[in-house]
Amino acid sequence: MPLSFSHLVSADQIMRSDAEEILATCDEMETVLKKGGDDRLKRKVLACLFYEPSTRTRLSFETAMLRLGGQVLSVEGAQSSSLTKGESLEDTIRVVGQYADIIAMRHPEEGSAARAMLVSPVPFINAGDGPNQHPTQGLLDLLTARKERGTVENLTVAIAGDLKFGRTIHSFSTVISLFPGTRFRFITPPNLRMPAKVTNLFKERGVPFEESEDLQDGLDADILYMTRIQKERFESPEEYERLKDAYVLHAKDLKGKSVTVMHALPRNAEIATDVDALPNAAYFRQAQNGVPVRMALLSLLLGA
Ligand code: CP
Q: What are the phi and psi torsion angles at 296 (to 5°)?
């Protein structure tokens, strides 16, 4: 079944039928990956425009395209593009869309992806626009939830840390809230709470959420999604220093707990490395799920 969108800018575009189609296509892509790939996107070209640092998103997009037989053009950092000569984002996208069949872009400004989509002559995917949205991360988190918990329904999802600037969890919470029985616990310091633009959607969808400042409130959830306090989003270095270690999860906190621990990575101190060896720690498996999800999206958006 085709998706309801031809560009993916924000997780709130995704309907439940889209999420189910993407998850079903991920199952097919896991089978493709087991045999090393196929050539369904042969002669198709993906342009990866990354104007902000990335390891997982860019490399898993590139891997996804290569595993499906396609090819990749990459720009890393604004310094290596004509944006430094004053070219507008819109002009860049118009031109790149004449070289490539599909574009994935990461950009530091909130709203940049929506601007790019409006002028893109080919399918456009937001790979992170500042503190706003990261919808492909939200989808790979959904796949992770299903693989780790066996379902995406009736899950209690605790999210801890920086929910104000955390684009990954804006997208994940929006996508998982499509499924019945989702309940949220948002655990933050007072000035890093989930923005109203996200919680208003949960109110519209009738999805219950509680707010707390105590990490203990996440330990009996089905999923505890830890987030990094993002230095690059703070105007005040003092405020960052004050908040950076607000929540630190240790192995001893998880003794006797079945909660699945997720994190989009990269992490700083918020998950101690002694958690890594526990079965609860799903974050490296989560990063691996970026490949089948991005294979599924490229394939569906390119009609392969
Ligand atoms: N999760 C994520 O977006 O990681 P990168 O910043 O490395 O792409």
A: -60, -45
**DSSP character at residue 221:** S
Query: Which one of 48, 52, 54 would you pick to mutate in the ligand 1 pocket, going by the greatest count of ligand atoms within 8 A of its CB?
Result: 54
Q: Is 56 in the pocket of ligand 1 (CB under 6 A)?
A: yes
Residues 6+ apart with CB under 8 A from 169: 159, 163, 225, 227, 264
For ligand 1, atom 4: residue with the closest CA? 56
Q: Quick check: 296 and 22 in contact, CB under 8 A?
A: yes
Q: At what angle do helices 56-67 and 290-301 cross, to 10 degrees?
A: 60
pLDDT of residue 79: 75
> pLDDT for 76-117, tens place per residue?
877 777 778 889 999 999 999 999 999 999 999 999 999 999
Closest C-alpha to ligand 1, atom 6? 54
Ligand 1 within 6 A of CB of 137: yes
pTM: 0.96
Is the CB of residue 224 below 6 angstroms from any atom belonging to ligand 1? no
